[in-house]
Design a protein that fits this description.
The protein is an alpha+beta fold. It folds into 2 domains: about 230 residues, no CATH class; about 110 residues, no CATH class. Helix content is about 50%, strand content about 10%. A 7-stranded mixed β-sheet has the order 1-9-8-7-4-3-2. Helix 3 runs antiparallel to helix 4, helix 3 crosses helix 8 and helix 11 crosses helix 12. It is elongated and about 85 Å long.
């Protein structure tokens, strides 16, 4: 999940961990904080920034974006054009000497002095309530049909237009779609894989989370001309960020592999230690591999529980039920293992620590409640553990 539900990462458009981690280096958050520092420095010199423009226009944008839902026909087209034009101005696309070439709802944007092959395309679309409407190939998400060339195929959906745009001879590297409350960012190679980034601009306006590095800063970093438009050499900021994200993913994968290996060693060594404490001989050589396999299986079970607890919507565990929180949750287990007991452990460990691993009673109230939810179709339900 992303750091804010107003920013949607579709199909791993960017590494989830890179985008959401609060790390102050090698992360998207680090880039956001860099931008915020630059904006604050500009503000101190009384120079306008994307953040200062957004702050000034936020209330008006919030009202006008919400009002689009009540309009239709020509009034919707006029209102959408006005809001989108103001938003482009706030984001900085009307400045920096950028070259614009507009045809219908399509605006090709290139760097100053470089007009051959615009790296960015902006599409002004019909306002939509949900991002799924913008992604549907059969949804008339354009205000009017549009063809990339005279006599060519006409498109009525943003999705089909982007697909055609990205395989065109003059294909842009990035595309920014404004559709009322939603702004969608697509990259040429990732779009073919169904990957995208979307920002609910109206929700960002409504929440007004102006804290350093939080929702407004992150949304503006995603969408501002500083990030999306080409620089003086025609390069794109987002290309560097996406490459950094890939390198970060490789590094995280290596860290995970090292962590899994170390965890298996810790679990296996604990088994060996307990055997020695019980006076048993060294583990036979032919049992080393089965022990490693069982240690890995034990680790996977812990990881599954962590994922299940972090995803209560799956209904796998009764997260939130007091019986579970006090008896079987990982937080409760963590509290138990941190308690120092005065008596030495028996051959199977301390009994109070062992008890929470027992099967859940079948007639717990949460089990009955989840069975009812499953039966009446109101939720996935949870099968009680067998006795």
């Amino acid at each position: 999940m992303s750091a804010s539900d107003a920013i949607v990462i579709g199909e791993a458009w960017i590494s989830e961990h890179f985008f959401t981690t609060e790390a102050k280096s090698q992360s998207f958050q680090a880039r956001v904080l860099e931008r915020r520092k630059e904006w604050d420095a500009e503000d101190a010199e009384d120079r306008a920034t994307v953040r200062s423009r957004f702050t000034h226009a936020r209330q008006g944008l919030e009202v006008d974006l919400a009002a689009l839902a009540e309009k239709s026909g020509s009034s919707l087209a006029a209102a959408a054009e006005d809001v989108h034009t103001r938003l482009l101005d706030v984001l900085g696309f009307t400045g920096h000497g950028l070259h614009h070439e507009r045809t219908g709802p399509l605006i090709r944007v290139s760097a100053p002095g470089i007009t051959d092959g615009a790296p960015l395309a902006i599409v002004l679309a019909r306002p939509v309530a949900a991002i799924e409407d913008l992604l549907s190939k059969d949804e008339p998400s354009l205000l009017e049909s549009f063809a990339l060339e005279e006599g060519g195929e006409s498109y009525t959906s943003v999705a089909r237009l982007l697909s055609a745009l990205f395989v065109d001879d003059d294909a842009p590297a990035l595309a920014l779609v404004l559709a009322g409350r939603w702004a969608l960012l697509a990259e040429r190679e990732r779009w073919a894989e169904g990957r995208y980034l979307a920002v609910d601009v109206q929700l960002v306006c409504e929440r007004n989370d102006a804290r350093r590095g939080k929702e407004i800063d992150r949304a503006l970093t995603c969408l501002s001309a500083e990030s999306v438009a080409p620089d003086a050499d025609g390069g794109l900021w987002w290309h560097g960020i996406l490459e950094e994200s890939v390198k970060h993913t490789v590094g995280v994968s290596q860290d995970l592999r090292d962590g899994v290996r170390l965890s298996i060693e810790i679990i296996a060594n604990e088994v060996v230690r307990r055997r020695a404490a019980q006076g048993l001989g060294p583990l036979p050589g032919d049992q080393a591999q089965p022990l490693a396999k069982q240690s890995l299986r034990f680790l996977y079970r812990i990881l599954f529980l962590l994922y299940a607890e972090a995803s209560p919507e799956l209904g796998v565990l009764p997260v939130g039920a007091p019986e579970y929180a006090q008896g079987y949750s990982l937080d409760r287990l963590r509290e138990l293992v941190q308690v120092e007991l005065a008596t030495p452990p028996g051959p199977l460990g301390h009994a109070p620590v062992r008890l929470p691993w027992a099967p859940l009673p079948a007639r717990r109230p949460w089990a009955q409640d989840h069975r009812r939810r499953r039966d009446d179709g109101s939720g996935p339900g949870v099968q009680p553990a067998p006795r």
